[in-house]
Amino acid sequence: MAPDLTTDVLVIGAGPSGSMAAKWAAKAGARVLMIEKRQEIGSPVRCGEGMSKDWLADVGIKPGRWINVEVEGARIYSPSEKVFEINEKHAGNEVGYVVERDEFDKQLAIDAANEGVEIRLKTAATGILKENGSVVGAKVKQFGTTFDVRAKVTIAADGFESQVGRWAGLPTNIALRDMDTCLQYRMTNVDCDVRYCDFYLGKVAPGGYVWIFPKAEGLANVGIGVQVSQIKGMAEARSYLDRWIDHHPAYAKGKKIDMVGGGVSIAPPMKQTVLDGFMVLGDAARMIDPLTGGGIANGCIAGKICGTVAAEAVHSGDASKKVLDKYEKGWRVRLEEKLYRNWLAKEKLTTLSDETFDKIVDALLGVKLEKLNVHNILKAVHEKYPEVTKEFEAFL
Asked: 5-46+103-174+270-346 belongs to which CATH class?
């Protein structure tokens, strides 16, 4: 049996938000152990691989070899394939860079390790350690051996299917209507435009959208996200995507060289993300944008706050909920309003007909939006089709 370990901060999960929290906690002088259940950080990839870029400097990430393409913007296609173009600055969380996500995740782990974080791979949390109601670490398993890791602060960054938050005592249940099933092919020999990320709306992807993220000339990620409550499983998601490809000659002639699938939360943010000795972060805390399904930027922004607060708690000798609430307040100030508004918008948008989507995109053609958000889109649509915005009055 391996000897038990002690550390200041234990981070469970080495995705972007976990690495970011680990890095910033170590930078602020805490001893940090980050564990990852898989044998390779960032693999397998379960991501469209598009991200915005204006937040990177904020959290100390330098552009690197993980960038495939820098795009000019996004094109939104209505069901009748009218096209609305937006530049990358206004296009939301998915547009700016198309990346090699496994390389990106590895780089963030390298940055954390370079700040002194110890990383253990193939090491899974199997339970939470509690004393007098406070979380004091986790039970972990590595290569068949189980041992305890005791920590002053434990951070759960274990992704969309997070169990650690639930074990600690936070309600992490999620409704079917708040989940998307996603499937993506990497395709070669396609006619993609490397200047744009493309999004197709309507019944082609019930409750979601089809995306094309160009990786290089002739190479693209072609994927779909569909609301779990509107389909019967992954096979149906795949048939929607295959049907879309068959109807688009530029992609029908392509060859599939890779396929990934998985779930994404399109839920409102969790009501509580902090307990005594414990914080939950990133996808595990439902910080994914419910409208776009993008979570990298939000997870990294919250990760910096989380790691900084964890180190402060360690130095003060007080990791109570009262002290860790600084993280709760910090991430909510940055992210919560947009997450919640986008969840409300998602609730409405998933009920719209193709005819309504056509009207929305039609109303946006030729309109110069200073900032692309739900409010500004609806104002533009209201000018041309006031009947469409009736259901959205709360947003105006």
From this structure: alpha beta
